[in-house]
Amino acid sequence: MAMVLDAIQIIAYTEQYGQKRVTHTSSPMNAGICRIKLHLPGSQSLKDKRGVIKSIISRLRTQFNVSVAEVEDQELWQLATLGIACISNHDQHVDEVLSKVVNFVKQNYPQLEIVEQEVEILHGP
Fold it and tell me: At 27, is the pLDDT very low, low, confident or very high (cuts 50, 70, 90)?
């Protein structure tokens, strides 16, 4: 979601200041959105939860070059929902990256339980 909002802000900025914007439609754009709901059984406070979630978000951004944010359950100590977005001109690449992200969380954070996960791939023109 953050990437989409950034693009909208850039478009609004360029239109506001009269700059020309070139649009290319020759290659399709595919966006993948992944939602992961995590159970953090060892978390005893929001501070504990934030430490774990910040670590996950930072590592995912660095390793996979995806946009990540905590999108739900911000006030619950033991639940966190992450939204992850990836954009590419190949839908297979988007699916592969999001699958690797989920596997990364499973392998590197065994103390967490993935309660729910969903992946949606949006195909461009």
Answer: low
Where do we find the tokens 């911000």? 74
Cα–Cα distance, 97 to 94 (Å, whole number): 5
- Helices 91-108 and 46-64 pack at an angle, to 10 degrees, of 140
Kindly report, residue by residue over 51-74, the tens digit of the pLDDT. Answer: 999 999 999 999 999 999 999 988
Using the 8-state DSSP alphabet, how is residue 77 labeled? S
Joined together, the tokens standing for residue 110 give 């065994």
Could you give the domains of the chain? 29-123 (3.30.70.1120)
- pLDDT over 90 (residue 9): no
Residues near 86 by beta carbon (within 8 Å), at least 6 away in sequence? 31, 32, 34, 64, 66, 67, 94, 97, 98, 101
Beta strands in the chain (DSSP E): 30-39, 67-72, 79-88, 113-123
